[in-house]
Amino acid sequence: MVDPSAGLEEVSIQAMSLVGTPYRYGGNTPDSGFDCSGLVRYVVQRSANVTLPRTTEQMGQRGTALERSEVASGDLVFFNTTGRANSHVGIYVGQNRFVHAPATGGTVRLEDMSKSYWASRYNGARRVVAAGSLPMTPVPTASPSAPPTAAPPTPPAPATPEDDPIAAFANR
């Protein structure tokens, strides 16, 4: 089975890097602060070069709707926090957690979707970035005049939790 989030790690990493940024209604940059849709729009634009609409309602019509079991890192998750569908949005980062800008007086934070507040208000999820649509990063190639190497390089050591920013935040 193919991991649907393969290649989309940058969306989650970018979202996690903004944890602690102040909330500001209408905010859409790290300097000014973020509201929920401003955060999502900023992260997806910066990490995947996909421009989303400004409102949660319009974001909820973009991309592909997902079953709860299909949600993967980098997908958008929607909630009903004001009595209307898709009134709040965040970015799923794995392990049943999402990053969002909650409300006035708060900061961008990591949240557990299984907490009763979020679980009871969950409206659905959408995939707005496809791994195949991300900008290609060229793979360096050896020049034809380079001398051959005697042995292949040693493979890197397995990643540790300290090397994985998503796991580090999720395991707090």
Main features:
disordered C terminus, alpha+beta, 172 residues, endopeptidase fold (from Nostoc punctiforme), 5 helices
Shape: globular
Give, in order, the helices and strands: HEEHHEEEEEHEH
Q: How many domain units?
A: 1
Strand content: 15-25%
**What proportion of the residues is helical, as a percent range?**
10-25%
**Count of helical regions:** 5
CATH class: Alpha Beta
Task: Characterize the structure shown.
This protein is of the alpha+beta class. It has a single domain (9-132), classed as endopeptidase fold (from Nostoc punctiforme) (Alpha-Beta Complex). Helices cover 22% and strands 19% of the residues. It contains 5 helices and 8 strands. The protein has helices at 9-17, 36-48, 56-59, 116-121, 165-170; strands at 28-29, 33-34, 64-66, 76-79, 88-94, 97-100, 109-112, 122-127. The chain has a 6-stranded antiparallel β-sheet. Strand 4 (76-79) and strand 5 (88-94) form a beta hairpin. Helix 1 (9-17) packs across helix 2. The longest helix is centred in the N-terminal third of the chain and has 13 residues, at 36-48. It is globular, with a radius of gyration of 18 Å. The chain starts with 8 loop residues before the first helix and ends with a helix.
